[in-house]
Here is the input.
Amino acid sequence: MRYYPVFLDLVGQPCIVLGDGKFALEKAAALREAEANVRVISSRDYRPGALAGARLVVDASEDPEINRLSWEEAEAAGILINVVDRPAQCRFIAPAIVRRDPLLVAISTSGESPYLASALRVRIERWLGREWGPFVSLVGNVRRQLRARGVPIPDQTRIYRRIVNSDVRNLIRRGRPDDAAHLAVAIAQAGDYAAGRVALVGAGPGDPDLLTFKARELLADADYVLHDALIAPETLALCGPDARLEDVGKRAGLDSPRQEAITARLIELAQAGSSVVRLKGGDPFVFGRGGEELAGLVRAGVEVVVVPGVTSALAAPAAAGIPVTLRGVASSLAITTAQGGGSFDRLRDLALAADTLVVLMPRTNLAEVAAVLAEAVGGSRPAAVISNATLPNQRTVTGTLDRIARLADQAAIETPATLVVGDVVAAAPALAVLPNSSVDGGLG
Ligand SMILES: C[S@@+](CC[C@H](N)C(=O)[O-])C[C@H]1O[C@@H](n2cnc3c(N)ncnc32)[C@H](O)[C@@H]1O
Here is the structure.
């Protein structure tokens, strides 16, 4: 690594900008913003010796001869110098900056690509809302108070974490700084920070980019993340470095006792003061048993938030280019599961009632499910099985209901997979051109 990043305190310090053009004006303005004592020397007025006494120099003269002389002079005198656009003649480089005073984020590509530095700056600016400035000031005030009270560092850390996970930042964003300050003070009072909480968070169908912003923030700040077996490693990588991960993925057959154990573990961790994320595939309330966990947590008096996720029931057809509703083709949709025991009466009823039927967990008994549905709505009804939707290994097989199970077997379609039945499959405008789709000739 060539560069050592620092933030310079230049308040009242003599700084010189060489040059007359736009760059010189910009550099002088930036240094003045940092309250430096700035002198601008025009290109024609520069003589060796003019830099004497300066702490820092920016040569924006764009004149190779002046560049050479200023570099030599600054080097000989030990003055920090940046010759604009000449990396070999720079003792420092200026990063792209995101300002949320007092928070400052500096971005550098070590001179490789100013474009990328500025593109990243725009992204970080969007991510770090304006409320971050006052939020950092508020946490700074709390910190001074805690230090004055002699609160031990581990307790301070828990309080900061609790503030980060609380509504304080939202209150500032909504223009209620006084309420935010009151809440922060309440959290900082001894005892109040001991309460933990659980977030029931939807992780989406697989692609980490489909995680919500809120889910990302909660993962970054969680003490514990209890996750399903199917969550992608890239998604888990979004957890903070100190987060403890527990795979509580359920196996078929062991469902009921495991579910109680998971809820009990969530309650135990929250009551011990931890911020817990319960990360579930898709949406937590779509065949995810999130409702049961919520009920258990509420009964135990634990604070809970629910963060919806993109459900695979909608994402799988969408990622395969199948619109679940389509003008003139389908205006109603039913979502169900092929599991859950009992008869297939409900499946049959739903297939008759809705234009489009989405069946989750269909893979193990696909042949049986397809036969039941074919009996209800006819074997020529179009169907699709989409596996690993939104992931690099996504695959789609389409065919009529009476052939779909065989086609899925022939194509060795794996789990997780979702079945879609309805005319929208044949009408899907882009199905044939999407990658990894095998469209059966019998369709449409
Ligand atoms: C226990 S259910 C949970 C559903 C989840 N809560 C949701 O909203 O997506 C698991 C089923 O979701 C479907 N599924 C999950 N991820 C999928 C994916 N990436 N592609 C296709 N289907 C998926 C499959 O039908 C799988 O058997």
User: Anything to note?
Assistant: The chain has a mean pLDDT of 91.
